[in-house]
Amino acid sequence: MNDWIVPDWPAPENVNALFTTRNGGVSGGGNNAYATLNLGSHVKDNLSDVEKNRLLLNRYLPSAPKWLEQMHGTSVLCMDNEMMSRRGDAALSRTHGTVCAVMVADCLPVLLCDASGTVVSVVHAGWRGLAAGIIEKTVTEMYNGDQTQLIAWLGPAIGSGCFEVGGEVRETFINHDSQAIAAFVPQQSQDDNKWLADIFQLARLRLVKAGVTAIFGGGVCTYCDPSRFFSYRRDGETGRMAALIWLS
Length: 248
Fold this sequence. Notes:
With 248 residues, the protein is α+β, with helices and mostly antiparallel strands. It has helices at residues 47-58, 127-132, 134-142, 167-176, 199-209, 232-235; strands at 15-19, 76-78, 90-93, 100-104, 108-114, 120-125, 150-154, 164-166, 184-186, 194-197, 214-217, 241-247. The strands form 3 sheets. It has a 6-stranded mixed sheet.
């Protein structure tokens, strides 16, 4: 499985998940921006290489992933249903073998399951979706009972020492929850209204507010490790990794 990441969390045995790195694929050629396991078909990579990469990934999965057209919004889609559109930023399933997936390159992937292994979901949590409530909406739609029965894992994302945001982003989170002030540190620059944001801490606050207290992972920075991770903030033109989860 190359150097892909298998979440270290107390999920039930029938819950399967993984996070791909940039390694183990065929993309690249003369453009190192996509080397080597780019899974995004919406970037400027050769589409035949993307298809080959997805087929390589499929060898480790029970079925092809249900890819989303991600919008940085709050749409949560149930992958067990036939749908005309897959425009959304979170996916859930209660069906054996259905693979939910999101693509990232600095945004935070959040995996969720219940302690009984009856439902799984994955969330694409960039700061816009996070601020708009994508985590809370996913928790509500995936589980109608006691949310303390849910387990969350935070995948690699841009770290707190690299994620510079403007004051308006900070205010958006603080206006929603005053505790979010602890997730922002002033950036030492000529612009006094720039801050370093901890997206992992912001996600934990949202999860706890939604009733999820079993939270694992977090802290792995995509920006800081170019040998393993694509990073949009670092490189601009770059590929995409995937976080995937399914029931067996």
